[in-house]
Amino acid sequence: MKKRSSNKGIRSIFRRFIGNRNTVTILGILACVAVLIVGYNYRVNQAISPIAIPYAKETIPSRTLITEDMVGKIKVSSSFTADATNLVKTEAEVVNKYVSYKTNIPKGSLFYQEQLKEADEMPDSAFANIEDGYTIFSLDVSLDETYANSIRAGDYIDLYLSARDPDNNLVIYGKFIESIRVLAVKDSKGNNILKNTVAYGKPSELLFAVRDDMYLLLMQASFITDADVEIEPVMRNQQYTADANETLVSSQQLQTFIQDRVSTLVG
Fold it and tell me: Which of 70, 138, 234, 242 could form an SS bridge with 158, CB 3.0 to 4.6 Å?
């Protein structure tokens, strides 16, 4: 009986304590202070806690493809990265990007968005990786010949050749070179045309990297003046590019015709 009376007394005291307005006010103030303290500590910890971001382990020149071995990680305050909106914060955003053609990245420097470019944003970046024994060939084209600017860098296309045989008064036409990769599309001022729209310039030339012997054959074709030789690009579908084969001269007859005409002109 004494124990039961004791419990009732405790509950009664607790109800009076809670029912007191001053008590409620004090508890509310204490709760607010606790929330402020916890929130403040959280914000401070977030601001001063270090995070790892990428930096350049070596000086990286302009137009260079950034690889994993060029990138390290350094810890900086979270508040520092919060204020730097253009700062690159992950290694994945750096590796396999190109350094802009407008800048170099010094050793020890952090990376910023405006310093990095995708491959198709870089003027002539593809030229940096041409294999030995290959030469750049430029083919003059028009808007119509590129299918209203639909041929783009990286596409695999075919080159057809048309000519007039002056000896037999015959017109020759056929596939000349197959599965040739377009290295770049440029306008008349030498600017890269990167998007499939005439708003980005009218195409004036297609550039290819071909074996030296194939380059010689293409140049010989352009030197022939008595047979109305024309080389035209023929666009193929996406699967043709995806399943690209080796670049080959596809017509021995056309190759022989060109070499014979050059021999006749020279001889």
Answer: 234
Q: Which CATH architecture has domain 50-121?
A: Alpha-Beta Complex (3.90)
Between 195 and 83, the more confident residue is: 83
DSSP codes joined into one string, 88-120: ---GGGTTTPEEPTT--B-TTPBPBGGGEE-GG
Summarised one tens digit per residue, pLDDT across range 203-247 is 999 999 999 999 999 999 988 877 789 999 999 999 999 999 999
How far is 58 from 108, CA to CA, in rounded Å? Answer: 7
Give residue limits of the domains in the chain.
2-46, 50-121, 126-266
Q: What is the DSSP letter of 58?
A: S
SS3 assignment, position 23: helix
Closest-CA residue to 157 (of 134, 186, 183): 183
